[in-house]
Fold this protein.
Amino acid sequence: MISFILQIFSGFLAIMNPIGNVPVFVSLVEEFDESTRKKVAQKAVVAAFIICALFVIAGNFIFRFFGITLPAFRIAGGILVFLIAYHLLRGKPSRQHHPGEEEHEEADPDSIAITPLATPILSGPGTITTAMSFAGARTHFYDLILILAVFAVVCLFTYLCFIYGEAISQRLGRTRIGVITRLMGLILAVIAVQMVLEGLREAFPYLAIGTSSNS
């Protein structure tokens, strides 16, 4: 159980990358006062939690509705997550997470909180894929609650990083934030490879992939 919790926590923490996204948040809300910044941060993490929770709870239904198998989803999702990790390892934002400038020209707090902060930055394709992969392998309702509880902790940490964003940016500096981003990318790359290995092992159970128990 502890191993599963740590896996969930590290997965969500790496894919959301709260500290690495602090400069993005600060740049988006720099023209707002402190009260508005807190509201934007709060609305963004709450919306991200709701989006992810919907996919965690309805994941099995989505699989059945579209005729998707868990192994296929894990393989495709692992590839997607690895692409995001690759960009993080290079110290560059992924296009799946960070839209172009033209996508957030409006300086409306509510709009910024939902897009691009809640989605795709916090709860984008990578986060949803990671959440559904965790949820797809669990059959008990308590496991889903555990996944959402861990995600809520990561969302709370993200909120704290955002509201203290300027202090964090000044204290750490661009170089240290870049190092943290690359570290998150490495963790995310390992998780992505593990997702692909699990998908291949489930799709081809006669192959000894990613485990020594089959040898």
